[in-house]
Task: structure prediction
Amino acid sequence: MLENKIAIVTGASRGIGRQIALTLAKEGAAVIVNYNGSMQRAQETVNAIQEAGGQAEAIQCDVSDFNGCKEFIDGVIKKYKKIDILVNNAGITRDNLLMKMSEEDFDAVLNTNLKGAFNCIKHVSRQMLRQKSGRIINISSVSGVMGNAGQANYSASKAGVIGLTKAAARELASRGITVNAIAPGFVNTEMTAVLSDSVKEAATAQIPLKRFGEAQEIADMAAFLASEKAAYITGQVISVDGGMAM
Ligand code: NAP
Result:
């Protein structure tokens, strides 16, 4: 379904990004596995793709670095000649109550989660405009849709990603580029593994389907949005959250 497509997945060394990279590769795409610090784990993602018969390469880039992103994406274009799919998945949390949240923690989360997505879209869209085709998929969050106590920085960044998605979708639609967001609920990854049992229980109580999601369930939506089947969908925020936000 994605044969001959070139895909970039940011933050694909682990968690949801890793599963998206594996899934796009399984569908036939050659995948650039981006990471920030986890070189070995990014290489493990690449190895898993290659062992399954797919094509992948790991490339380091801190998505919050504007010039670094330009260099990263220019390098991909030079080597692969095109970019068909960009998945902005890289994200961090620095949770705290507003009163205790430092300026540094606010800025760090905004710089990675929101500015990081802008940086990648900005540099990739020039190529996609030239191609007159492309798929951009941004990973937002239920926290960006509903807000979450203790996550003012994260919720703001993920709500920002939704605005960025809609503005980019409007700007790029006339050139055949779609831009959509996925808003996952609680998903079993290292990001949620740090939550205490009581927080996990309270979260599960708010989920109509009464369980956390799996990374594969987010990856399946990303693969759908990247495919031809989603050609008429743009500017949308698709919740994959067990019914949390409805
Ligand atoms: P995770 O397991 O903590 O993995 C985060 C990934 O992002 C890692 O690959 C990490 O790379 C990468 N990353 C972090 N900062 C980066 C930077 N500056 N530049 C490049 N890569 C960077 O997180 P996850 O749970 O899979 O979450 C993935 C995405 O889904 C995030 O955007 C998150 O906000 C969103 N999300 C998650 C949940 C959930 O419940 N898990 C719910 C809603 C939304 P390194 O390993 O190299 O640092």
About this structure: Strands lie at 6-9, 30-35, 55-60, 85-88, 134-139, 177-184, 237-240. The two ends are 31 Å apart (CA to CA). The pocket of NAP is lined by residues 10-17, 34-38, 62-64, 89-92, 112, 116, 139, 141, 184, 186-187, 189-192 (CB under 6 Å).
